[in-house]
Design goal:
- The chain has helices at about 10-15, 20-35, 45-55, 65-75, 115-120, 135-140, 140-145, 160; strands at about 1-5, 40-45, 80-85, 130, 150-155.
- By secondary structure, it is α/β, with parallel strands linked by helices.
- The protein has one domain: Rossmann fold (3-Layer(aba) Sandwich).
- The protein has a 5-stranded parallel beta sheet.
- α2 runs parallel beside α4 (about 65-75).
- The two termini are about 30 Å apart.
């Protein structure tokens, strides 16, 4: 199954702090499923890859996020493991993507996360976005869903509404 992975998933998969161990384990499991059985979807301009690249630790004992990045580095040009879709910039709005919905409900959606939405909307299967703890995805989930963007909350939805 294809998936788009928000950067916070591999970042949290590396965490070892007691207060986030359950979330870190869920992130590690989600990444493991992608590397073993799934298909990671990225942009072909390397915007997502460049963001991922800022976070791995290249010394000491690797965490699950570091292992995921190593897997991605080894597999990013294997189309059966990593799909890369083209992102078209909106000529009328510099820095915006042509496929990002023109919807007032999404006007204040985080600009740094718009590339993930654009990747989902460009890929023919409209894969879900995996998110760990970024509240923007929760806050805009209904507006995104209206446009065909599904979000999978890897660490559970309850963290966003205090249950």
């Amino acid at each position: 199954m294809p998936a788009v992975v928000d950067t916070n998933v591999p970042v949290l998969a590396n965490e070892r702090a007691v207060d986030v161990l359950q979330c870190a384990a869920a992130c590690a499991q989600a990444l493991n499923e992608i590397t073993k059985f799934g298909l990671l979807v990225l942009d072909d301009g390397d915007q997502i890859f460049a963001e991922y690249k800022r976070y791995p630790k290249f010394s000491g004992q690797p965490g699950a996020g570091d292992i995921f990045f190593k897997w991605l580095s080894d597999n990013r040009y294997k189309p059966d493991r990593v799909a890369q879709v083209p992102l078209v910039q909106d000529p009328a709005l510099p820095g915006e993507f042509a496929v990002f919905p023109e919807d007032p409900a999404l006007a204040t959606f985080d600009h740094s996360d718009r590339k993930f939405v654009a990747v989902v909307l460009t890929h023919p299967e409209k894969p879900p976005v995996l998110n760990a703890t970024d509240s923007d995805w929760w806050d805009y989930r209904e507006a995104l869903h209206t446009h065909g963007v599904k979000v999978r909350f890897v660490c559970g939805e309850e963290r966003f509404h205090g249950d």
